[in-house]
Amino acid sequence: MAEVLFSTSENGVATITLNQPKAINALTYDMLLPIREKLLEWDENNAIRIVILKGAGSKGFCAGGDIKTLYQAREQHQDALQAAEQFFAVEYKTDQLIAAFSKPIIAFLDGVIMGGGVGLSYGASHRIVTERTKWAMPEMNIGFFPDVGAAYFLNKAPGYIGRYLALTAMTLRAADVLYINGADAFIPSERLPDLLNQLETTNWHTGNTEDILQQHLDSYTDHPGTEGKLADLQTQIDQHFSYDTVEAIVDSLTTDTSEFAVKTKEMLLTKSPVSLKVTLEQLIRGKGTLAACLQTDYILAKHFMRHDDFFEGVRSVLIDKDQNPQYKYKQLADVSDAFVDTFFKEL
User: Fold this and answer.
1) Is the dihedral of CA 212, 215, 220, 225 positive or negative?
2) Which residues belong to the active site?
3) Alpha helices in the chain (DSSP H)
């Protein structure tokens, strides 16, 4: 069974379907490479007017990258390291291509969308969430860092919410994804089949593509129904996450006896100290373009592929599933600024 399916129609519609439903469409190198090749082809093909990006199965659009495969690089064998670096290289190039694509891309973010799935779809021109959407950058849970251009798009969230999401790996529902500009419209999942049918049966070779597409989407767009949580937490998040060191963030949370502050501090202290410090520095530095952030991500990813605590995080969450990582760097004080700085240097 093909891991990714491609189709085109005489109406001008091209469709990409991530096709690993049992793995919630986790991305592999063998999926990303043909996606990039097809997009390059379709960008130049005047017969293609819009692109639909969706995931197979009922669980979600995409659970992220295939981390278990990357785990094979733990022995630091050159072939495994090279394969991991090739994965990141094509992943980031594909993310950049989608963001720069000259035609509308409609991404259906129904169900789980995490990590690499967020990166793949963030640059799409029209991103649709549903009541089933579960959006997250969960890399902090495995001793990694939020990559796929996260420094670029998380810094665009209101206030310091981007830092909060990066460091805590919180999962968001539809209203909050819209609040951070991670999506463009909410459409109930039960209406997606009708919308897809309308997109597929419209003749896109006549009329203004953008106007017709927006009319279609507007006719299905609704309100999430339930309010998000981030807007109400904005003041507290900005108060605590405006600091430029993890220690200062933790100290600030310590002075606050609210349930939010207590739980957030507890959550932060379960994460890898190296991941926390590298990620905060990543977001502080990541104020440039998406391309610049992806370039930095590639440098960081190569360093993490040579970092023991990443593999320990993956082992504890995805391999042995004991949820008890034994990190080499156990305390924030164990991670110096000089050590953090080495992660940003070219290998």
Assistant:
1) positive
2) 65, 116, 139, 147
3) 29-44, 67-70, 78-100, 116-122, 150-154, 161-168, 174-179, 192-201, 209-220, 230-241, 246-254, 259-268, 273-285, 290-304, 308-314, 337-342
CA contacts within 13 A on the Cβ side of 272: 32
Which pLDDT score is estimated for 65?
A: 94
C-alpha span between 308 and 231 (Å, rounded): 37
Measure Cα distances from 277 to 86, 242, 269 in Å: 26, 14, 12
Question: Could you tell me the CA-to-CA distances from 110 to 61, 67, 309, 323 in Å, in that order?
Answer: 6, 22, 32, 28
CA dist 235 and 230 (Å) reads 9
Residue with tokens 């320990």: 312
Provide the CATH number for the domain formed by 1-347 in this structure: 3.90.226.10
SS3 235: helix
Determine the Cα–Cα distance for residues 109 and 300; give it in Å rounded to an integer. 27
> Are residues 20 and 56 in contact, defined by beta-carbon separation less than 8 angstroms?
yes
Q: What is the pLDDT of residue 226?
A: 84
Determine the Cα–Cα distance for residues 109 and 13; give it in Å rounded to an integer: 18
Say if residues 99 and 76 touch (Cβ distance below 8 Å): no
Residue that the structure tokens 């005489």 belong to: 10
In 10 A of CB 139, how many CB atoms?
27
Does 74 score more than 90 pLDDT?
A: no
**CA neighbor of 125 nearest in space, from 104, 96, 153:** 104
Question: DSSP code of 228?
Answer: P
CB 177 within 8 A of CB 129: yes
Torsions phi, psi of 276, nearest 5?
-60, -50
CB-based burial of residue 35 (10 Å sphere; 0-12 exposed, 13-18 middle, 19+ buried)?
buried
pLDDT at site 75: 81
Please tell me the distance from the alpha carbon of residue 345 to that of residue 303, in angstroms, as a whole number. 9
C-alpha span between 122 and 29 (Å, rounded): 19
Query: From CA 227, how far away is CA 326, in angstroms rounded?
Result: 38
pTM above 0.85, yes or no: yes
Query: Is pLDDT above 80 for 1?
Result: no
